[in-house]
Amino acid sequence: MTDSTVGRMPEMRAVWMEQLRVVGLAIRRETGLAGLVVALASLAVIATSRLPVLQAIFNEDMHELVFDPAVSPWMFLPVLAALLLPLVVWKGERRFGDTPLWSMPVDHRRHALLKVGAGWVWLMVILGAAFVWATLTTLVSGGALGVDEVRLLLLDPAGAPAGTPGSMESVNWTTPWWQWVLPFTSASAAYLLASTLMLSTARPVFWAVGLWVAGAVVLGIGEIWDIGWMQRTTEFVAWYIGGESFARGVQLPTGWEVVWTLVPTAQMWAASAAFWISLGLVGVLVASGRPRNQ
Fold this sequence. Notes:
Blueprint: H1 12-50, H2 52-57, E1 66-67, H3 76-89, H4 108-140, E2 144-145, E3 148-154, E4 168-174, H5 182-200, H6 204-224, H7 228-240, E5 247-252, E6 255-260, H8 266-288
Helix pairs in contact: 1-4, 3-4, 3-5, 4-5, 5-6, 5-8, 6-7
């Protein structure tokens, strides 16, 4: 180090590029393993749909692959990956106590924010590649992108089983453009919330399990006591993170059938994305300001 470099702060562009490189190196093993699993699964799907021998074996169990981004597993897997990614991004790095963050030439809060940002960029790259791969797998296997179907919308839960006129409505549904963006916004929100736990507590897994248990208790209370607003809130959250939602099995005069209690809209997606991503951003900003020596 020379006299001309003492006390100089590195340029933010250089720090940002270094964070991208470091995070990329940190996640490469897990990303490679996940990519291998996805590749093997894709080959199995394509082989089953194209080889006559396998078609004969799995004829009754294997249905045409449909890539509908708003349903499980296409929605749930990106959210799950986003929740686990911060553990990989920050692995091997002490976030509290005697940490190298204090000896770096970059403010520890800025360092944390840049690291979270670099992880999000890699998450988007990985999800983009995964969606391209899923699209190619679907097309090669002879499947379909999105759905084009008629859904039964439940308007009167009490009248539907008796066949009351006006209790049901047929709705034409085609996968809209915003549902192809939904997994990316949901994964972004999940990643930011998980990063908040990583930056705010030394035991993020403990708190994550506690929050999951608390959510399960709230869900159970809503179901047992039939609390409408609580059930609807749970449905909205489940829908946004990729769970099966807004669907209910009803005994109709024609037999047992799954009907829809609500048809999602672009306004629902925009409002949910704005709320959860904003919550995650605020959480990361607040958590990044916590003193690192505690």
